[in-house]
Amino acid sequence: MALIVQKYGGSSVADAEKIKNVARRIAATRDKGDQVVVVVSAMGDTTDELIALAYQMNEHPDPRELDALASTGEVVSSTLLAMALEAMGYEAISLSGAQAGIRTDATYRRARILKVESKRVVKELEKGNIVIVAGFQGITEEMDVTTLGRGASDTSAVALAASLGAEVCQIYTDVEGVYTADPRLIPEAEPLTEIGYEEMLELASHGARVMHARAVELGEVYNIPILVASSFTGKPGTLIHGGVSMEVRNKVRSIAHDLDVAKITVVGVPDRPGIAAAIFVPLAEANISVDTIVQNASIENITDLTFTVARSQLADAIKVVEPICSSIGARDCVTDSKLGKVSIVGTGMQNTPGYAARMFRVLSEKGINIQLITTSEIRITCIIDEAMVKDAVRALHHAFEEE
Amino acid sequence: MALIVQKYGGSSVADAEKIKNVARRIAATRDKGDQVVVVVSAMGDTTDELIALAYQMNEHPDPRELDALASTGEVVSSTLLAMALEAMGYEAISLSGAQAGIRTDATYRRARILKVESKRVVKELEKGNIVIVAGFQGITEEMDVTTLGRGASDTSAVALAASLGAEVCQIYTDVEGVYTADPRLIPEAEPLTEIGYEEMLELASHGARVMHARAVELGEVYNIPILVASSFTGKPGTLIHGGVSMEVRNKVRSIAHDLDVAKITVVGVPDRPGIAAAIFVPLAEANISVDTIVQNASIENITDLTFTVARSQLADAIKVVEPICSSIGARDCVTDSKLGKVSIVGTGMQNTPGYAARMFRVLSEKGINIQLITTSEIRITCIIDEAMVKDAVRALHHAFEEE
To answer: Out of A85, A94, A241, B256, which could bridge B207 as a Cys pair, Cβ 3.0 to 4.6 Å?
Structure first.
């Protein structure tokens, strides 16, 4: 008897019939004799609708109140799913994030999980229950409800799997797994049978929406195999795990893209110690995620500093950065919000020269200008004009995936 | 500086505009310098809609799951109300029943409040917050969410008022207070300025929907004055309190009616000790509230036993009673679900003969047949044909209220 954690996203539980369909899938797993813990998102667009209601009340709703409000969506779907399973003759119980022991810090809207006190979950499993946990939410030490950020039900699921020592964490969604590129853009993209944690982390961090990066990271740390598959078909899906890199080194695994990129350049900065900290510490304190950072070589002790943020955070970032620009004596601060990025990811690139050169040549042949470049050991990312992203993905998929 | 508890019902917070209206009323109270704790029901028909969803999943939804589901309605309205107050520049915080320390037993669907641990509420008041508490709900020792029964946000409010030592508990609803009879039936019915706890308790227990009986009882026990008033007008409303009976003894205070009455008669029961217990203990265990019980005089050791239940509980009651009828050797078990009851209530009736006789004569003059009679010291109730209830209320109001 194994313990399996399954997660079902909002589109999988969007209405009563879909919830019953999910219940049948859970029941089939239970019938094999395994213990099952299920993490569930809110039904369809519930979260968006609740947030819209909040903005009708207040243009700047309090984050604590927003979290308490938004968390109700998952309580609704988890109780309904438990009822559907009971109607089929299975013993089931729903638990809120608080009841399931998901303890977080008090950073509302994007709380981090501090620990999972899984006593209650274990007790209910021992009673023979299928345990349905409301995803996306946790509770602080003060017993205030938090949410973990958009798409973070994946993180709830992997955290539970880790704390319970589950055999596998199965993420059921509306796509059939991880592809060599976004199949909506590249019809000939192929689903992957397996992928390593690091590759998946790079993809998730650079625009692949199939899986939440924090969840992948957590899976890697606790070595929990994660299966990403469709809740609507019987296709096998993609297994994310740690033992895959050795066999498949010489390959670009997948191509990720992201259309949500904005750039800020601080022009004419005096090049002295402490300048980077003066800019990026306040941004971090304002909870703004900075992605790529590039600093040009200094000419006469004056340099330019460029970095990117999500487009939705550009206005907030500017508010933080502009007063700093004046105080550090920068000449100007310019922005560009019409950018995108495209990344090639694969452990095969590690220590293998030539991938970057080939990527740049492919883009150049299509007349695509590269604005910024960043790399990791297993990833190369180019930031380009938003309008060129689709062409770039197509050209790169053709060049790398069909070799 | 006084502490005031206010409760707003579902119709008062049915949509975004109404929530803002309620926020303005709360703000006006706060502006007078008082501390304010607000208990709020779910928006409009939210609770019914959630319950309907549950029945789509399962014909017999688990009570624990139903409670967790239904409790989300009040979390939504309380967070939105807090946001609306903050938008107006007031400091406010929402608390779920659990956070507000409403500890209950584990009788799902109609849990009883065991105690209110008001530490968090007090802390938030001391910080200067208006505290918005989700009504209708509490939490067990096991941290499972319970609900207190339909209409029980009144009870939440009075329980909080009692535990906080509030000066008054104001129940805001869609009617302008307690009337001499249901004003929808009797247009000339008059609002009462004040009424005693016991009279209100009798009215609430016998069909007057304006206030939840359990809340009145709690108000009496802890001597919390309760104001019932409209959230839509500036009318003064009705004050329910303990110091009123002496001055106004010689009067029928109000006439209550209830159309939700069903009758079960166990026919031909052997009249021996233990028979009543054999029937009513299992009904109590099945959580069925029995109202009136009448047992006829025994003829040759055979008697008939008649009792009433809410119409919605008739089917469940029959399921319990029928097998018992066979086992105790009763001849038959017959039901009538088309009954209503009408009650006259007033401390003036206490120790004053003649009220019952006058009531029976008024009904008789209208050709209304009385099926069962029950009395308390300050109430006389007649159970009659449902179709005659309106005529009965009119005739009794005419006879008693216009004297």
So the answer is: B256
Q: Domain range for residue B332?
A: 255-401
Same domain, A133 and A268: no
- B154 with B39, same domain? yes
Please answer yes or no on whether B93 and A64 come within 8 Å at the CB atom: yes
Confidence category of residue B249, pLDDT binned at 50, 70, 90: low
Give the pairing of strands B137-139 and B145-147: antiparallel
Does one domain contain both A259 and A148? no
Residue B379: inside a domain: yes
Q: What pLDDT is attached to residue A378?
A: 85
Structure tokens at A341: 């990025």
Map residue A45 onto helix, strand or coil: coil
Task: Strand A238-241: give its sheet, edge to edge.
Answer: A92-95, A130-134, A35-40, A3-8, A168-173, A226-230, A238-241, A194-196
Measured between beta carbons, the chain B residues lying within 8 angstroms of A19 are: 57
In this complex, the residue of A69, A84, A94 whose CB is nearest that of residue B80 is A69
What pLDDT, in 10s, does the model give residues B42-74? Answer: 999 999 999 999 999 999 999 999 999 999 999
Q: Are residues B365 and B273 part of one domain? A: yes
Best CA proximity match to B156, nearest among B84, B92, B78: B78
Count of Cβ atoms closer than 10 Å to residue B123 Cβ? 13
Interface A-B, measured as beta-carbon pairs within 8 A, has a size of: 105
Count: domains in chain A: 2
Could you tell me if A107 and A17 lie in one domain? yes
Closest listed residue to residue A191, CA positions, set A170, A212, A176, A211: A176
- A9 and A128 co-located in one domain: yes
CATH code, domain carrying A13: 3.40.1160.10
Which residues are within 8 A (CB) of B60 and not within 5 positions of it... i.e. 6 or more apart?
A87
| Residue B185 maps to a domain | no
Q: Which of B174, B200, B216 is the last residue of a domain?
A: B174
- Position A293 in a domain: yes
The residues that bridge with A263 in the sheet, in sequence order, are A308, A336
Contacts of B133 (CB under 8 A, 6+ apart): B37, B38, B39, B40, B78, B94, B95, B96, B97, B100, B102, B121, B156, B160
SS3 label, residue B30: helix
Is there a contact between A72 and B68 if contact means CB atoms under 8 Å apart? no
Beta carbons within 8 Å of B17's beta carbon, 6+ residues apart: none
Cβ atoms A38, A153 nearer than 8 A:
no
Distance from CA of B78 to the nearest CA of A (A): 9
Mean pLDDT of the B230-254 span: 79
Do A278 and A162 share a domain, yes or no? no
**Inside any domain, residue B213:** no
Contact A50 B76 (CB under 8 A): yes
Q: Is the pLDDT of residue A247 over 60?
A: no
Mutate which of A40, A66, A72, A119 to disrupt the B interface (most B C-beta within 10 Å)? Answer: A72
- The structure's pTM equals 0.84
CA distance A141 to A136: 17
Question: Which residues contact residue B150 at a Cβ distance below 8 angstroms, ignoring those fewer than 6 apart?
Answer: none
User: Cα–chain-centroid distance for residue A49?
Assistant: 21
**Predicted pLDDT at B209:** 81
Which residues does B259 contact at the CB level (< 8 Å), separation at least 6? B207, B340, B386, B389
What is the CATH classification number for the domain harbouring A304?
A: 3.30.2130.10
Give the residue-averaged pLDDT of B73-94.
98
Whether B153 and B8 map to the same domain: the answer is yes
